[in-house]
Amino acid sequence: MLTHAGVDPSVLIGGIARNFGDAGSSYRMGQGRDFVIEGDEYDSAFFDKTAKF
Fold first, then answer.
1. Domain housing 19
2. Cα 36 to chain centroid, rounded
3. Which of 6, 8, 21, 25 has the lowest CB atom count within 10 Å?
4. pLDDT: which is higher, 13 or 23
């Protein structure tokens, strides 16, 4: 959505995106000043409620 709007952000996600590089990747290095990072608040562990980053 951002690239279609003319913004060129760097991106870091938890999965593999097929349109990030030739073979797919979990990051994209943009030329713009913005950085997008995926935040996942999935309740993966009952006793571990601390941030992972």
1. 1-26
2. 6
3. 6
4. 13
**Whole-number mean pLDDT of the chain?**
82
Rounded average pLDDT over 28-52: 78
Q: Does residue 7 lie within any of the structural domains? A: yes
Q: What is the CA radius of gyration of the chain?
A: 14
The answer to whether the CB of 39 falls within 8 A of the CB of 52 is: no
Question: In this structure, is residue 36 part of a structural domain?
Answer: no
pTM for the predicted model, two decimal places = 0.64
